[in-house]
Amino acid sequence: DINKKEDIEGIIEFYEREGVCLASDDKYEEAIKLLSNLLYEDSFKEYKAKILSGLAGLAKIKEDMEKFFIYAEGSLNIDPTNTDLRFDLAYRYSKKGENEISLLHYKKLINATKSPGGLNNLGVQYNILKLPAKSINSFFKSAENKETLAMANIAGRYLNEGFIEDAKREIKKAHELFREDIEVHGDIGIAQNRIEEILEKEKKKEKVISEETIHALAAVVKNINTVA
Predict the structure, then answer these.
(1) 3-state DSSP call for residue 200?
(2) Per residue in 21-30, pLDDT tens?
(3) What is the mean pLDDT of the chain?
(4) pLDDT tens-digit profile of 84-120?
(5) Which domain holds residue 128?
(6) Would you list the DSSP string of 147-210?
(7) First-to-last CA distance in the chain?
(8) Gene3D superfamilies from the entry (predicted)?
């Protein structure tokens, strides 16, 4: 019975799977046509958001970002509760350099659901848009929800200002989450390496400064002796 919700959703999912197969077989336009035809069927008029989301998925497979943005925006306009699609859309806008639009979608995302990853990415967008206070606040909120990438970003901020011990504490917190079977993001390792690089660089620079100062003082003493 095509009037039953589960049957209609099953048909849409079947068409989505067929579309993925076609798109993967270099029949992208055929895949789009197959699924988009459902938009004009009366039986599916209440499921446009799901169909458009499926079309966005097909467009993403082929990296057709123009269509992806259109389909995803259309789907979310009908069903704003699709948080997975909104996260993906915000991320894709960011990759394209559309940072203001990306920021808007990340804000909508975190207002709708608990999303540590969304909070972290919101912090990234704030930083790109030169809003550092809002950026670090988003990172901290994300880290409170055990997002280790946010912890890496916080550590990076500390390191930029020379707060080595604070960065170490943030890195340690991330590593401790491994005991809770939480994957530690690779950027934590990068932050750890930065600490060693910064300390080594400053050690060498301080040595150069000391040597230059000693030479300068020696020259002064020599001049004094010459004058005397």
Answers:
(1) helix
(2) 999 899 999 9
(3) 94
(4) 999 999 999 999 999 999 999 999 999 999 999 999 9
(5) 81-144
(6) -HHHHHHHHHHHHHTT-HHHHHHHHHHHHHGGGGTPPPPHHHHHHHHHHHHHHHHHHHHHHHHH
(7) 111
(8) Tetratricopeptide repeat domain (1.25.40.10)
Residues 151, 222, single domain; the answer is yes
Q: Of 79, 101, 128, which residue is a domain's last?
A: 79
Same structural domain for residues 113 and 157?
no
Pair of tokens at residue 147: 């997002």
Same domain, 150 and 228: yes
pLDDT at 5 over 90: no
Q: How many domains does the chain have?
A: 3
Whether the predicted pLDDT of 2 surpasses 70: no
Reduce the DSSP state of residue 16 to 3 states and report it: helix
Q: What is the pTM of this model?
A: 0.86
Angle between helix 132-144 and helix 116-128 axes, rounded to 10 deg: 170
Is there a contact between 157 and 124 (Cβ–Cβ < 8 Å)? no
Cα dihedral sign for 135, 141, 143, 147? Answer: negative
Instruction: Evaluate whether 33 touches 65 at the Cβ level (below 8 Å).
Output: no
pLDDT confidence of residue 42: 87
CATH number, domain containing residue 87: 1.25.40.10
From 47, 79, 111, the end of a domain falls on: 79
